[in-house]
Write a structure and sequence with these properties.
Layout: H1 3-17, H2 28-37, H3 40-57, H4 64-70, H5 82-92, H6 100-114, H7 119-135, H8 141-146, H9 176-181, H10 187-197, H11 209-212, H12 216-237
Length: about 240
């Protein structure tokens, strides 16, 4: 099969193919093989199918979150499937039964990436972490620790090279990366970071869907408009 057709099949599996099968667990080998042999765009689609089998048909696949965690790299933010990835990642991390160490690892990996990615993706990542903390309040301790520590990576206990998200020590670390973004030159990024660092237990999750579709051109246009508006107001003052 060519790559396009392969992805199309993987895309149909969770909603169109699995519900029509007598024994959907027969797809398990195909989906695990797809993860191992296909590109990243197909890997996330394969994980979606595996997630459905795990949550609805009792498939045991202990490597699921490790595979998912490994896809969180800087390359993700220049990929065409970025929006779909974060849409599915949000679904995969919804369960309140997930181990705190695992959830903390995802929050920490995302926070570290937030320092490296383009500006137009930073609010998306910060909002994603914000929602994780609302959904899994136990990891809020990562904010509390930051507020009593000095910003810096030299004492960070988080093991960024660890492949197993249950063993990264992320919950023992802090979100100093988000604290550093509160001083970002772009007001939207700084505001998002400040909102996360001052999060309260009674806050609600924030809508991410608009942020999933923002691109670099939109941010540039918005910034130019802001500068133009500021210049117009300044000119009016001196008239």
């Amino acid at each position: 099969l060519d790559a396009t057709l392969y992805r199309r099949i993987l895309l149909q599996i969770p909603t169109k193919i699995i519900p029509r099968m007598v024994n959907p667990l027969l797809l398990a080998d195909f989906l695990t093989g797809s993860y191992e042999t296909q590109n990243n765009a197909s890997k996330i689609l394969a994980l979606h199918g595996l997630y459905v089998l795990m949550t609805q048909y009792n498939l045991e696949y202990p490597f699921f979150f490790g595979k998912l965690y490994s896809l969180l790299t800087i390359d993700l933010f220049s990929a065409k499937y970025k929006a779909r990835f974060f849409y599915l990642l949000d679904i995969f991390l919804q369960s309140s039964h997930l181990p705190v160490n695992l959830v903390a690892s995802f929050a920490k990996r995302l926070a570290r990436l937030a320092l490296l990615i383009p500006q137009h993706d930073q609010c998306l990542i910060i909002t994603f972490i914000y929602n994780l903390i609302i959904r899994h309040p136990t990891i809020r301790i990562m904010i509390d620790k930051q507020q009593s520590q000095t910003i810096g990576t030299n004492k960070d206990i988080y093991s960024s090279e660890e492949l197993d998200p249950n063993k990264t020590n992320a919950i023992e670390s802090s979100l100093w990366e988000i604290e550093s973004l509160t001083h970002h030159h772009h007001p939207d990024v700084a505001t998002c970071a400040l909102a996360l660092m001052s999060i309260r237990k009674k806050n609600n999750e924030r809508d991410m869907h608009q942020l999933l579709e923002i691109d670099y051109d939109e941010v540039c246009i918005y910034t130019i408009k802001q500068i133009y508006t500021f210049q117009e107001k300044s000119a009016t003052i001196y008239v």
